[in-house]
Structures are given as C-alpha cells and as structure tokens.
Amino acid sequence: MKKGHLILNFSKFVTAHPWWILLLVIIAVLSMGAGVVKLEFDNDYRVYFSKENPQLQAFNAIQNTYNKSDSVLFVLQPEDGNIFTSKTLQAIQTLTEKSWQLPYSSRVDSVTNFQHTQANGDDLLVADLVVDPFVSAAEIEKIKQVALHEPYLVNRLVAKQGHVAGVNVIIQLPGESPNEVMEVAMSARELSAEIEAQFPGMKVHLTGMAMMSNAFNESAMNDNKLLVPIMYMIVTLTLLLCLRSFTATIAVVVLIVFSVISALGIAGWLDLSLTPTSAIAPTIILTMAVADCVHLLVTQLHNMRIGHEKKQAIQESLRINFQPIFLTSLTTAIGFLSMNFSDAPPFRDLGNIVAMGVMLAWLLSITFLPAMMTILPAKVKLKDDLDNSGMKHIAEWVIRYRKPLLIVNGIIALVMMSFVPKNQLNDEFVKYFDQTTEFRQATDFLNNNMGGMYTIEFSIHALEKGGVNEPKFLQDVQGLIDWLLIQPETIHTNTLTDIFKRLNKNMHGDDDEWYRLPAERELAAQYLLMYEMSLPYGLDLNDQINIDKSGIRVIATLESMSSNSMLAVEDRIKQWLALNMSEYEVELASPILMFSHIGSRNIIRMVMGSGLALILISFLLMIAFKSIKLGLISLIPNLVPAGIAFGIWGLIDGQIGLGLSVVTGMTLGIVVDDTVHFISKYRHARIEKAMSSQDAVRYAFATVGVALWITSAVLVGGFMILSLSHFLLNSQMGLMTAITIAVALVLDLLFLPPLLMYMDKK
C-alpha cells in the first residue's frame, strides 16, 4: 500500500502543478539538448572495429609501415570500348595530372604515368609509359602491348581486354576533421564530371575505400532526411486513428521530440560520435517512446469514457501503469545496453543512445505527458466499462479455444525454430549498400570489368636489414606469388618481385630470357638503387618496401566473395605459409578480412550480452510480479519470437551478417513490453479484483488489448521504415526486428493467455 500511496501522491502532485512540471522539463531538455552541437559524424569504415580488434591492429601496423592503401579509384569507360586511342589516353593522362590536386592525395597511379623501364646500352631508362598520347598508331600499339603484358597494370589499372582503365589516387587523411572524406568525395566527383564534360562519351565510375567511407556518411544522412520524416508521419497518423484525440497526439509528438533531442544531447556531452548505425537512434527512440505514452493515454481515455473526471482519470492511469511502464522501459533499456557486448563500437553507441532515450521517454511519460494532458482539453464519448467489442470477441475466442491454441501455437513455434540452423554467418561489406548507391554501382562495375576492391595485404619480414635483396628471400616471396596466382579467387598481385624481374631483363639488353629474379644479392641491390633514383617524386617504392628494406608488402586482389569464403581463403593462405614460409614473420590484413572476422566474433559476444540481459530481465519480472512462476512464464513469449523470426529468416534469406547479429539483444527488451503489460493486468484482475483466470483474461484484453495493438503497430511500422534504408546493416536489422515484434504480438494475444490459464489451473 505504501508504494501505491507514493504513486498516487506523485500523480496528484503532477496534475496539481502542471505548469511547474512543464517549466522544469523544458529547462532540463534544453540543458541536455545543448550537447547536440558537440555531436560529430565519424564516417571512417574503421569505426566498426574496436581498438582491441586484432585484424584492425594488424592492418594499422601494415599501413604505418608502408604507404596507406585508402584510395579513390577512377574507373574510365570509353564509349568505343578501347582505352588505347589518343583521345582516351589523353583523358587518362589529364585525369592523372589533375588527381594530384585532390585533397590529401599522396600518390597517383595510372597506365599513362606507369614507370616503364627499358635498356639503352648500359643505361636504364625510366619514364612514363605515355608521354604524349598524340602519337602514331604504331606507337599506340607498342603502348598497348606493354600495358597488356605488364603484371603491375593488368587487372589493376587496365582491364585485360583493354576496354576499361583506372586511375588510383592514394589518400592520406590527417584525421583532424570528420569532413575530410566528404571533402575528398566532393572533389573527386567534380573532377570526374569535368573529365566527362571535356571528353564526351567517357564515363567515369568512382570507387575505392575513401568513397566507401563517404558512402557510409551519405547513407546515414539520406536515411535521416527520408526515413525520420516518414516515421513521424506514420506515428502521428496511427496515434490519431487509434487514440481519436488530437491533443493526445500532439502531446505524444512533443514528448518524442524531447526524448530524441535529450538523448542525442547527452551523447554529445559524452563525446560520442554518430555513425551510419548509431545515426538511426532517433528513429528507434521515436518508436520506443510511443509505447509508454499509448498505455497511459489509452487508460486515461478509457477512464474518461466510463465517467471519470480528467484529472482523476490521469491519476488512475498513472497509478495502474506506473509499474508496468517503468518495468518495460527498464527491460527495453537493458536489452539495448546488452549491445555493449558488441565488437563493433557503432552498435555499442546505438544501444547506449537508445537506452538513454528510452529511460528519458519514461521519465517524460510520467511527468511531462500527464502535465500536458492536464492543461490541454480532451473530449471523449461516455461508454460502458470494458466496452471494447473487438477485444471482447478475441478474448472469448481465445478462452474458448485455449487448448487448441496452446498446442497449435506451440507446434508452429517449434517447427519455425527448427529452421534456425538453416542460417549461416555470412557478410559482404560492399553489399552493405544497395544497388541504388553510387559507390555500389561503381564497385560492381569494377568487379565485373577490371580487378576489384577485395584485397589481402601481406607484410613479409626478411631476416635482416636489406634482406629484400636476398635471392632466397625473393624466391620465397615469388613462390607465394605463384601460388596465389593459381588460386581461383585471385585476380591480381602487386609485388616488388615483378619489378626485379623486369629490371633484370632490362639490364640484359631487354632479353626475355632474363625475365627472372637476380641470382646475386649485390646485383639485386644495385638494380633497386638504380630504379629508385630514377623514379619521380610521389612514385617511390615506399608502398612496397619498408625504410630499412627488411620487409616487403604484397597485395593480392581477389574477386568479390562472402565473409565465409574470405575466411576459407585466409585459412588456406595461413596453411601454405606455415608449410613454405615458416622462417619469416608474415602479417595478413585488409578491410575485407576485418569485416569478415567481425560478424562471427560479434554474434558470439552478442549471445553473451543477450544471455546476461535475459538473466537480469528474468529477475526483474520475478520481483515485479512477486512470483517465480509468472516470471518464468513471461520468458516464453519473450524468447520464442526471436527464435521464430530467425527461423523465418532461415527460409527467406539465411545469411546473418553484422546487422542481424544484434537483433536478439535489441528485441529481447522490446518484446517484453507487451508481455509485462498483459501479465500486469491479468495479475491485477486475479489479485485485486479476485477474478477467475478466464475473467482475468477478459479484463486484460479489454484494458490493455488496444494499447498492445497500437504500440505494436507503431513499433512494426517504425522498424519497417528502417528496412527501407539503402544501408543493409540498418535495413536488415529493421526488417528482422519488425518480424520479431509482429510475432511477439501474435504470441502475446494467442499463446500467452492460454498459457496463463493453463498454469493457473495447474
């Protein structure tokens, strides 16, 4: 009784001093929301990996030793399908020269500035392959023959059919501003448009890791510009139709805005950064905030329809709903906080921001909302108690067929969950973006016509300084190259050994018989020194050998593949290295390896997080219901929906990537809401009203059934809107969450009541 008195006194205070409550709320929201200006957007793809991530550490180690590999890749597609014409070579040359002016560019490689070597007596001539594009047809044919037989160029900067060419610009971002990538992307687009205008018939496609980082940024911005307004419109229309009260709808919309601004403001004060994943937090908070409001407003309007005065109706609604909405908000927050177990920081940030938003929405629901409803006018038509014909019919049907429903729903759940093993952990990071995205279109074109974006980088450490000149070391590296090139997934390898072989041939009068690695260390060192001294500024070998020449970098370009296939390739490589190069220290790394590993690691950690969340939620429900039995019963309709949803996913897709790996943790807290409200009303009827189990089910349907429909409709609608995102991590997460919530509603209405009646009978 003491707790009931406290809640009643609190509700009386709120309705007695609404203006003071509103003033305090506005001050608090402004204080928290001021942090929004501190929010920055982090669009680097590396943000998906924690600092402790071993693949990121290996990648950073290679990037710090050699030149960075983040780039903008211009892919040129001439109208006539032949890059070896004066017009197209001029376009490539012009683009190559102007690419040096891109922000933060440190190196530009293309077929025109390729450092072609040839012998001139005892001298070595090193010069651009294309000095003047306007030469005779015979000279262009020579350029073509060199280009199409040069391992460094083919399938990297020139398609082997000669119909597509690339200009690769290495970008060295200082990391001082989140706008650096956008600045690079904007300049690259302006340059590609300039080339297309200057050379009619030329199509330029933009890809590369820098453009991928920018695609992350643009996906988030487009989602917020498009999806959030649609979501607000759907929520507003749903509330108007269901509550049939304009003032109640306005109050809820203002509460949602306050919740979102406050949560984002706190994130700003905490120096969190928004990412394509955490940027969807406002949409999720929006849907979560509606749930608390709907339960309070439905009960208030119901009380007014049966004759209660407005303040009395608000106070009674607060008294009845205070515990369940606190409980549902807390369990939802716990579910989202379990995302802190994720190996990907953006999912941690998403979980934390939404958890803050959910608890702020609860706080505003018990303060701001009743204060607003006290001030605003609200008119309803008087009706009889529990007059809800739709819910009344469903309740009677459920009571009448409780045994068949219990059996049939149980069988359906078991059958659907049996399809869960059909799912497999798999991902493909380029396909994080749908085919309407410029980056995805350009990357697909690259994959289909010349090389690809998927790479594995090797850092191979020789046994001593200057060891890259040791013939045995070079032979061992060449052995790796030869093995890589016969693998079905390999498209291209970029390695120093090709340069050594070319130099050896040049220094023997360009005799093809000498296209092999030098047999003496001193000779190899002389070749390398001579070549390096002949290279122009910006085209040195720092991207292939380290400073003291004790290590060499090999880059293998692979065809597009899933994360499972990439992990299989990595295992195959490690086995070969263990058998053939065990005397050297070899590091493997690349963005694709990072993304391939994170999916499996993330789902293991999320299972741990979801398990802990489940234990906490179970204890909370047992304490709240003061019943171990009710607490355990509630777990069934809370766990089964996720199992059924993943069973459905196994049938329709079967690929679980980074986005889906967090769904169980997210939905665990959300689906508890309906269960808690239904059981709370059922328990209230059984204990306080001394009703039978069947009458208690009727009471629960009548008092909370409509609210369950409304909240579930809003939640499903909100997450279905997310499924429209062009960013696959968000769209899959939204679709799976919507499926889970829809399944949870069906179980709460058709499975939970028969289960409660059966357990009460037992």
Write a brief structural summary.
The chain has 762 residues and is α+β, with helices and mostly antiparallel strands.
CATH superfamily of the largest domain: Multidrug efflux transporter AcrB transmembrane domain
CATH fold name of the largest domain, please? Multidrug efflux transporter AcrB transmembrane fold
Low-confidence stretches: none
Report the structural category. Answer: alpha+beta
Instruction: Compute the CA-based radius of gyration.
Output: 32 Å
Query: What's the pLDDT, averaged over the residues?
Result: 87
* Tally of separate helices: 25
Strand proportion, as a percent range, falls in 5-15%
N- and C-termini, Cα separation = 29 Å
What is the approximate shape? elongated
**How would you characterize the largest beta sheet?**
4 strands, antiparallel
Could you say what the CATH architecture of the largest domain is? Up-down Bundle
- Write out the strand line-up for the largest beta sheet, numbering strands in chain order: 3-6-2-7
Report helical residue fraction: 55-70%
How many extended strands? 14
Count of separate structural domains = 3
User: What is the CATH top level name of the largest domain?
Assistant: Mainly Alpha
